[in-house]
Amino acid sequence: MRNNNPLIVEVTRGDMVESRHRGHCVVADRTGASVHAWGDGDLMVYPRSAIKPLQALALIETGAAEACQLSATELALAAASHSATPDHVDAVSRWLERMGLSEFDLECAGHDPKCRDADKALIRARTAPGALYNNCSGKHAGFLATALHMGEPTKGYSGPGHPVQQRMLAILSAMGGVDLAATPRGVDGCGIPVIGMPLTAMARALARMADGKDLDATRAGACSRIIAAMTAHPNMVAGPGRFDTVTMRLGGGAFVVKAGAEGVYAGIVPGLGLGVALKIADGAKRAAEVAMAAVLEHLGVLDPMPETPVLNAAQAKVGVIRMASDWPG
Amino acid sequence: MRNNNPLIVEVTRGDMVESRHRGHCVVADRTGASVHAWGDGDLMVYPRSAIKPLQALALIETGAAEACQLSATELALAAASHSATPDHVDAVSRWLERMGLSEFDLECAGHDPKCRDADKALIRARTAPGALYNNCSGKHAGFLATALHMGEPTKGYSGPGHPVQQRMLAILSAMGGVDLAATPRGVDGCGIPVIGMPLTAMARALARMADGKDLDATRAGACSRIIAAMTAHPNMVAGPGRFDTVTMRLGGGAFVVKAGAEGVYAGIVPGLGLGVALKIADGAKRAAEVAMAAVLEHLGVLDPMPETPVLNAAQAKVGVIRMASDWPG
C-alpha cells in the first residue's frame, strides 16, 4: 500500500494534541518494490547511524572478523549506538587492545555518555569522556580492524578518501541499487562522511540484508551473521531502557531495529524479507521510535507496545505520544 | 503582512537540508490586529512557560509584591525558566524563607538542573534536585506569595480550582480578549494547569503588555514593572548561555523574549507596541529559538545574530540551523 500522506505522530497533553511530527517511511523488498510507503519515498536522507548494520558488513567480508576472532558481542558493538555503560566501554577497550591499539586511535571524539549512570560516574571521577564513550566507538573499532587487516593506514580512516570509507560507499551503492557518486555529502557526529541516499534505496539496502537471495554467498553470509549478532545481543546495540534494545528483545530475533540521529530509523525483517527506512522530517527521536514501533506492529512482527507517556517533573502522566488516528493511512 | 505558509526552519548538514521544522507565528498589536502572521494564527496552543510574564502580573496586582518587598530580581525570577545556577536557587530559597516558607511548600517537583555545572555539583554531592531546582521554582514562589497575601491556603495552589490559578485564567482571558472557559486543559511540566488559547489571542495578550493604553492603571503599571524587571535581569529569566538571556542582553531593554516548552515562544516589544506568539509545530526548541531571533530581526529590534551551528562530537561545525530561503515569506 502506498500513500502520499506522511505518517503523523501526535504528542498530546490533557485535552488536545500539543505537537505533531511528520514522517516519511518506505517498506521495501529486495527488488526495491515498495510494499508500504507513507510520504515521500524519494526523499534524500542521510541514513546516519541507522545503517550501521550495513557498515558492519565490511568487517566480515574483508576477513577482518575472522582474523580478529571477533565475538558476536563485538559484531553487535560494531553496529551499535551504545550507551557507554561499563559493559560497552570495556568491550570496545579490550577489542582495541587485542589489535594493539587504544582509545587514542579512535577518530571519533568523546561525548557525554547516553547512560546517565555512566555520565554520573565520570562526573564524580572528574574525568572527561574519551573516544571510547562515543556511542560509535564500536563502529570505529570495526573501521580500525578492517584497515589493519587490509594493510591500510589506520590513521585517517574516517576521511572520505580512505579505503575504509570507500568500502562503505560501495556497500551502500550495491545494496541500495543506486548510484551514490554525486549525492549530497556531509560529516556525521562521529566524524565520518555521511552519504545522501533516497529513502527507497535505504529501504532496499535493508531488505537485501533481510533477504539475501540476490547476493553472493559471502555477502549473504555476512548479512545473516550481523543480523544474528544484533538480535542475540540487543543490549550491545543500544543500552538499558533504550528503544532498540527493548524492542529487539521483545522481537526475539524477528527483526533488527537501528536508530540514527535526526529521526532516522532502519528495520530489517528477515522472516518477511523486508527492509524499513523511516525519517521524521523534523529529526525528532521521540516520534521516530513511536512510528517505528507502529510500522513493526503493522507488519505483524511486534506486539502492540504500551503507550508512550508524556511525564511531568513529578513523573505524572500528562499526555501520550501516539500515531494519529488515520494511521495506517 | 499575512502569509498562510508556515515559517520553515532548516537544519543543514554538509550539502543538504537534513531536517525541517514548521512554525506558526503571529505578531499583533493591542487591538488584536495581526501586523505579521505566518501559518495558522487560529492554532490552539498551550502557551506553557512563554506566558510567565503574564502570570507574574498577579504578584503586583494583588499587592503581594509590595507586601513582600520583592526586588526586581525576584520579579524576574517569578517570570523565569531558570537554569538552577546557585544564583537562581539561592534567590528563590531566600525569598521563600522571608515568607516563612520553604522548598517543601513548592508544589513543583524537582528535576535535573538545566545548568550543567549545577547538575554536576548535585551529582558529586550525591544529592537529588529538590523543587528549588525546578526551572519554575520562582514562578511557584510567586504563586505562594499571592496566596499568602490574599489569605488563601498555600497548600493546593497549583490546582485548577485554587484562586491562584483562577487569577491566571482571568488574566489570560482579559489580556487575550478571548473566552477561555471551554478551551482545552492539561497539566504543565511543573504541575499547574495549562490553558489552551489561540495563537492570535496569545499574541494580543503579549501586545497589551507591550502597549498598556487600554489597560487600567494598576495593570498597565504591573506590565511595565515586569518588563523592566525581566530586561534588567536577563540572567535571572533563563541562565548563562541560554537564548532568552543572551538575546535580551543584546536587546538592551528593547524587548522581552520568553521560551516555553514544546517550541512555544513569546515576545514583548514595548517600543513598537507589539506582541509575538510563536509555536513550532513539532515542539523543537532549536527551531523556536532561530525563528524567534528571525522575527525580532525582522521587526528591527535585534541585530542579525551569528549563524547557529550544528556541531559534531569533535565540536566541528558540520551544518547550520537557519530560516529557509523564502523567509520572511
Key structural traits:
homodimer; two-stranded antiparallel ribbon; 329 residues; 13 helices
Tell me about this structure.
2 copies of one chain form a homodimer. Chain A has 329 residues and is of the alpha+beta class. The longest helix of chain A is centred in the last third of the chain and has 16 residues, at 217-232. In chain A, β12 (308-311) and β13 form a beta hairpin. Chain A is 38% helix and 20% strand.
Radius of gyration of chain A: 19 Å
Share of helix among residues of chain A? 25-40%
State the distance separating the first and last CA atoms of chain A: 9 Å
Topology, number of strands of chain A? 13
**Content of β-strand of chain A:** 15-25%
Coarse structural class of chain A: alpha+beta
- Helices and strands of chain A, in N-to-C order? EEEEEHHHHHHHHEEEHHHHEEEHEE
Work out the helix count of chain A.
13
Short description:
The structure is a homodimer of 329-residue chains. The first copy, chain A, is an alpha+beta fold and 329 residues long.
Itemize the secondary structure elements and their pairings.
2 copies of one chain form a homodimer.
Chain A (H helix, E strand, L loop, with lengths): L1 E2 L3 E7 L2 E13 L5 E5 L5 E2 L6 H4 L1 H5 L2 H4 L4 H7 L7 H13 L17 H9 L12 H13 L13 H14 L8 E3 L5 E3 L1 E2 H12 L6 H16 L1 H4 L5 H9 L4 E5 L3 E6 L4 E7 L4 H14 L9 E4 L5 E7 L6
Parallel strand pairs in A: 1-4
Antiparallel strand pairs in A: 2-3, 2-13, 3-4, 3-11, 5-8, 6-7, 9-10, 10-11, 12-13
Helix pairs in contact in A: 4-7, 4-10, 5-7, 8-9
